[in-house]
Amino acid sequence: MRRAPHRIAVMGSGSWGTTFAKVLADADANAEVVLWARRAEVAAEINEQHTNANYLGEIRLPGNVSATDDPVAALQGAELVILAVPAQSLRQQLGEWGQAIAADAVVVSLMKGLERGTDLRMTQVVAQVLGVSDDRLAVVSGPNLAKEIAREEPTASVVACSSQETADWIARSCTPAYFRPYTNTDLVGVEIGGIVKNVIALAVGICDGMGMGDNTKATIITRGLAETTRLALALGGSADTMAGLAGLGDLVATCSSPLSRNRTAGRLIGEGNTLDQVAEKMTQVAEGIKSGSAVQDLAATHGVEMPITAAVVAVIDGRVGVKDMARLLLERELKSEEIH
Ligand SMILES: NC(=O)C1=CN([C@@H]2O[C@H](COP(=O)(O)OP(=O)(O)OC[C@H]3O[C@@H](n4cnc5c(N)ncnc54)[C@H](O)[C@@H]3O)[C@@H](O)[C@H]2O)C=CC1
Ligand SMILES: O=C(CO)COP(=O)(O)O
Predict the structure, then answer these.
(1) What percent of the chain has pLDDT over 90?
(2) In which residues is NADPH bound (predicted)?
(3) Do residues 82 and 13 make contact, with C-beta atoms less than 8 angstroms apart?
(4) Structural domain contains residue 250
(5) 254 CA distance to ligand 1 centroid (A)?
(6) Tens of pLDDT along 50-74?
(7) Do 148 and 242 share a domain, yes or no?
(8) How far apart are CA 94 and CA 83, in angstroms?
(9) Which of 1, 149, 185, 257 has its CA 20 to 30 A from that of 165?
(10) What are the residues whose beta carbons fall under 8 Å from the beta carbon of 279, sequence distance 6 or more?
(11) Quick one: 137 and 236 in the same domain?
């Protein structure tokens, strides 16, 4: 059995990158977990106070987590590289870091976004820019609201890689007492589940902001899962994955939690804020806002119908007001409930 990684780089010190560094460090006290922070003051705070207060409040990070604002230093000797920056910035970041990532490192994406302009998933961007082979490329995704995990509230997740051996190796490295990763070889399904749930959470948030009740939101969640599953199947993913933690699990967590940035952004839109006002009020990334149109493009390329996604994108683009969103969805021709 392959030994546990000694040195792990986590690229991105926002809420999820920092929390996942804690997960890795709590899982193995011998692992050296190095966080890369964009801002020197964040790295200094992590090293000196063992906190990242802007993102995680008073949560204390374990002693085997350190930080640097130098990406080359963070990546030095890392056998496992975890990527946790906003999706639309990944390509540029990889361009800057690429040479420093070891040729045999395993690369894991924590990101839940689709690249605008190319409609590529994050693992596809990594493969394209770095030439990482499929057996060294993975995703961690599931119902994983960072703040709850940082508080060590129990949750499960999915480690997806086309290589079962690599998925097992990663899963063993991120198993502290409060976090249980399952493995899955359906990388596409797991990644798509994480991407599309953000767009559906925007729709649920819009309903919330407009004061709608639980029937409406349950309808959006259920039919949201149906359209997510249609897209995943068209891309070669499996229906089982969509019924699991990275599909239904994450969708339910994100659509029901006030901690979700995507649901919050949707609520603000539903309350009548413009996109600029939403951007002003949000300090963290809500991936669905930018990924929505890429999801719609990808669906169109594959002939997949995604009416909720289309309605959310129409609202974001300013083509439809929130008050007309329901009509747009309800006036469609009646059809069978079947996914296909
Ligand atoms: N926060 C959560 O609960 C979870 C987040 N995710 C995903 O993880 C990814 C990262 O999210 P968070 O850490 O929550 O975001 P965040 O907004 O908390 O932090 C983003 C981090 O990236 C840095 N950053 C911002 N713009 C950048 C740029 N242009 N280039 C490089 N770095 C930049 C920020 O300084 C910050 O350190 C997203 O794709 C998100 O969907 C996945 C699961 C859970
Ligand atoms: O992905 C998440 C939970 O699994 C976090 O969702 P938000 O990005 O909407 O906060």
Answers:
(1) 97
(2) 15-16, 38-39, 55, 112, 146, 261, 285, 287
(3) no
(4) yes
(5) 15
(6) 999 999 999 999 999 999 999 999 9
(7) no
(8) 10
(9) 149
(10) none
(11) no
Distant-in-sequence, close-in-space partners of 37: CB < 8 Å, separation ≥ 6: 13, 43, 46, 67, 68, 69
d(CA 127, CA 152): 33
257 lines ligand 1 (CB under 6 A): no
For the cut 90, the answer to whether the pLDDT of residue 339 exceeds it is no
Nearest CA to ligand 1 atom 4: 16
Q: 266, 208 in Cβ contact below 8 A? A: yes
For residues 66 and 9, give the distance between their C-alpha atoms in angstroms, rounded to a whole number.
10
Task: Say if CB 18 and CB 55 are below 8 A apart.
Answer: yes
Distance CA 310, CA 330 (A): 13
Place of tokens 């069978």: 336
Q: Please report the pLDDT score of residue 238 as a whole number.
A: 98
Residues 6+ apart with CB under 8 A from 331: none
Taking residue 48's Cβ as centre, other Cβ atoms within 10 Å add up to 9
Quick check: CB of 66 below 6 Å from ligand 1? no
Q: Are residues 176 and 236 in the same domain?
A: no
CATH code of 227's domain: 1.10.1040.10
| Both structure tokens of 12 | 């991105």
What is the number of the ligand 1 atom nearest to the C-alpha of 113? 39
Question: pLDDT of 247-267, one tens digit each?
Answer: 999 999 999 999 999 999 999
Number of continuous H segments (helices) and E segments (strands) in the chain: 17, 8
Q: Distance of alpha carbon 165 from its chain centroid, rounded?
A: 23
Residues 85 and 4: their CA atoms lie apart, in Å, by 24
Q: Is 194 part of any known ligand binding site?
A: no
Residue 196 and residue 291 share a domain: yes
Mean pLDDT of the chain, nearest integer: 97
CB 9 within 8 A of CB 81: yes
Q: Is 197 a catalytic residue?
A: yes
ipTM of the predicted structure?
Answer: 0.98
**pLDDT recorded at residue 98:** 83
Q: Interhelix angle for 187-209 vs 307-316, to 10°?
A: 60
Q: For position 184, what pLDDT does the model report? A: 98
